[in-house]
Amino acid sequence: MNTLRTAMLLAAMTALFMGVGYLIGGSGGMVIALLIAAAMNLFSYWNADKMVLSMNRAVEVDERNAPEYYAIVQSLARQAGLPMPKTYLIDNPQPNAFATGRNPQNAAVAATTGLLQQLSHEEVAAVMAHELAHVQHRDTLTMTIVATLAGAISMLGNFAFFFGGNRDNNNSLGIIGVLVAMIVAPFAAMIVQMAVSRTREYEADRRGAEICGQPLWLASALDKIARGAERIRNPDAERNPATAHLFIINPLSGERMDSLFSTHPSTDNRIAALQAMAQDMAGGASASARPQTPMPRQADEQRPSGPWEKAEQRAEPARPKSNPWGRNPTGPKGPWS
């Protein structure tokens, strides 16, 4: 189903791209736009993840230079039955995270240093579980390619201002067509982004809560990230707004989280859904002699220290504890130590 949905979205974005090309340059512009869209679809399939990571200046880390963070992702990937994704850190004070990649075998997850500094161990685990849910649902390919094409459509609309459109007989719309391309094309691209992101965020919240075992961890994390995103500017995201829908919370300072045109659903609604899920899980756990285990059993040397040890022994949903990371969120040898 996700493959069909991806194909339909790519077809819609390509048609939109061709329509803008026609409004700007008539039938010739449409053909050129089709060729550009085809090339971009092919390029995006193989390289869009690298582009997004580069735009956000993400640095790959491993168990040597980010042991705690890497161990969390490793544990969650095993819990979800996924291959270990590449793990990245972004030197940015705004708490946020995203996932990218064309499939689970070529996936990557990225978190900001602000996320690791401001959230507890459990909350970080819940956020990364949410991102792994996107990987498991194969959302990352669609969301990354849509980000690339949405940015291209917006750019194409801006070109109309400079070139003034083609006034030959093939394009009778003339200056009206150019104005439509300038105004409607970026707006339509934003609508497609909203459609992609809003529905999938709820699904990833639910699956992420199932992976980490504690919906309240993710509810608490979303609240902290939303307040942090309102307070702290993300310059890289502001320069590349077409990638905003990739993040777990909208990173753009100019948009409120509950805005009509936000790429993300209301944070309050997401938190309410997770709280309801926690109540359902607590009711099921109290009726069972064996509560859910939020993290898989591992050897001690491979497992992050303590926060989920006690959670295995209680039926009620665990609430996150205070931040255990200290000054260096990546471990003793972090790249920004």
Descriptive notes:
Helix content is 58%, strand content 6%. It is mostly helical. It has a 4-stranded mixed β-sheet, sandwiched between helices. Strand 3 and strand 4 (107-112) form a beta hairpin. It is elongated and about 65 Å long. The chain starts with a helix and ends in a 51-residue tail after the last helix.
Descriptors for this entry?
337 residues; mainly alpha; 9 helices; 58% helix; 6% strand
Radius of gyration: 22 Å
Distance from N terminus to C terminus (CA atoms, Å) equals 44 Å
Residue share in β-strands: 5-15%
H/E element string? HEHEEEHHHHHHH
Low-confidence stretches: 165-169, 256-260, 289-316, 323-337
Structural class: mainly alpha
Kindly report the oligomeric state of this protein: single chain
- Taking strands numbered 1, 2, ... along the chain, how are they ordered across the largest sheet? 1-2-4-3
Percent of residues in helices comes to 55-70%
Number of helices: 9
What does the largest sheet look like?
4 strands, mixed
| Backbone shape | elongated
Number of E strands: 4
Overall mean pLDDT? 76
In short:
The protein has about 325 residues and is mostly helical.
Could you give the topology of this structure?
Layout: H1 2-55, E1 58-61, H2 67-80, E2 86-90, E3 97-101, E4 107-112, H3 113-118, H4 121-136, H5 139-163, H6 174-212, H7 215-231, H8 235-239, H9 267-286
Parallel strand pairs: 2-4
Antiparallel strand pairs: 1-2, 3-4
Helix pairs in contact: 1-5, 1-6, 2-4, 4-6, 4-7, 5-6, 6-7, 6-9, 7-9
